[in-house]
Amino acid sequence: MTDEQIMLQVKEGNLDLASELYDRYNTMIYNYFLRISFNRELSQDLMQNVFFRLINYRRSYKPKNRFRSWIFQIARNIYADHMKTIEAARMNFTDLPMMNDSVESGMEDRDLAANIKTVQTALTMIPQEHREVLIMKRYQQLKNKEIAEILACSENTVKGKVHRAVLSLRKAYFTLEKKNQ
Asked: What is the enclosing helix (H) or strand (E) of 104?
């Protein structure tokens, strides 16, 4: 069954099938929050809130929407709500944990590890809206159409946002590179 078919059944009251959606999306949603917040515990809590809201607001799901876009919109709203409730100072990101899916933790290539660390640190330096769109595009591998649905804008606007975000990340990356030389 597709995600959309499962969600339609959940919408109709078959809540047991929500576990299937959880199994399919919990890691993806957790990683989304982790890459935005750089906080494992917070990411776990926010991920659980997504699925709590999925159940609570299941009747708001519209079959014309892709489920993936809908759940990421919920995730985005939850993070926005979280950011509104806190006014704490920025976290100290000097010792970021390695957060990549493609490189093994026992990595031998120190240059690659240093570059990944620099990219992660650069991500913390760019504006939230830039970081968010890059995470959706590059790490979550969402298509421009899906991001447009989540952000409630056109695909062309998404392309512009991604372009500006990449420029912002590039500037931050090269600033860090200069400092590290």
From this structure: none
User: Are 168 and 126 within 8 A, CB to CB?
Assistant: yes
Please indicate, yes or no, whether residues 151 and 100 belong to a single structural domain of this protein. yes
- Which helix (H) or strand (E) segment holds residue 158: the answer is helix 155-180
DSSP state of 106: T
d(CA 132, CA 168): 12
What amino acid is encoded at 81 in this protein?
D
Going by C-alpha positions, the residue among 11, 129, 17 that lies closest to residue 70 is: 11
What total of structural domains would you count in the chain? 2
User: Taking the model in full, what pTM does it have?
Assistant: 0.66
Q: pLDDT tens digits for 74-106?
A: 999 999 888 888 644 344 343 444 444 444 445
Report the 10 Å Cβ neighbour count for 154.
Answer: 12
Do 85 and 23 belong together in one domain? yes
How far apart, in whole angstroms, are the C-alpha atoms of residue 89 and residue 69? 31
- Give the residue among 126, 120, 129, 131 at the shortest CA–CA distance from 36: 131
Q: Which runs of consecutive H residues, i.e. helices, occur in 38-99? A: 40-56, 67-85
